Amino acid sequence: MIDKLRVLEQNSIQRGIPILGSEKGAWLLSIVQKHKPQRILELGTANGYSGIILGSGGARIVTVDINIVLATEANYNFAQFRIDAEIRLEDGVEYVQHVVKEKKEQFDLIFIDFAKKKYFPVLKNCIKLLKDNGILIADNITMEGCQNFREAVLHHPQLQTEIINIKDGLSYSIKRHL
Ligand SMILES: C[S@@+](CC[C@H](N)C(=O)[O-])C[C@H]1O[C@@H](n2cnc3c(N)ncnc32)[C@H](O)[C@@H]1O
User: Fold this and answer.
1) Distance 42 CA to ligand 1 centre (A)
2) Which atom of ligand 1 lies nearest, measured to the CA of 12?
3) Rounded to an integer, what is the distance from CA 116 to the centroid of its chain?
4) Residue 163's pLDDT band (cuts 50, 70, 90)
5) According to DSSP H, which parts of 36-134 are helical?
């Protein structure tokens, strides 16, 4: 799977699109293969690179981005890789608020990879949207802007969290039933 994404990876790097990349991508793929999530929410679609990995096991993904150009590319890339994805063109913070309010559904896995300062504001709602034993992953966890998110996931009573030290890091949390 990661090898099949080499062209998209190289093309994205050349164009300065900040995708997950193959090293973190291989780790994410191992999580998908181990836990087999069926319903996935992604905040930050870009051109679909990480979404293809998330959906490679046949899961249904809802993925949110504000950039129409990238979302259009993602739509094409998802079709190429036969990924079952619904792209929502809206603000990620507002989207999770809406889903919580509507009590529409819960997810097996949520992947956060959008504006770093928005990580903390979505945390409470993302925990609500996760099923028990669901997985919360956030990318670029050592980057400026998401320190408060990192501290919160490390100390949250409902989360069991570890930091994955690949490049600028990811947080990996499991939601426990209180
Ligand atoms: C790091 S990129 C996502 C990379 C993608 N997850 C991947 O690895 O292939 C971050 C994306 O978040 C989007 N974004 C930024 N602020 C956002 C917001 N408030 N709501 C939704 N998406 C946002 C940007 O348009 C950008 O495409």
Assistant:
1) 9
2) 9
3) 13
4) very high
5) 49-54, 68-80, 92-102, 119-129
Fold of 3-175: Rossmann fold (3.40.50)
What is the pTM for the complete model shown? 0.98
Sheet with 159-164, side-by-side order of all strands: 84-89, 60-65, 39-43, 107-112, 130-139, 170-175, 159-164
Query: Which amino acid is it at 156?
Result: H
Residue recorded with tokens 């930050």: 44
Q: Give the model's pLDDT for residue 104.
A: 76
pLDDT at residue 177 is higher than 90:
no
Could you tell me the distance, in angstroms and rounded to a whole number, from the CA of residue 153 to the centre of ligand 1? 20
State the DSSP code for 20.
-
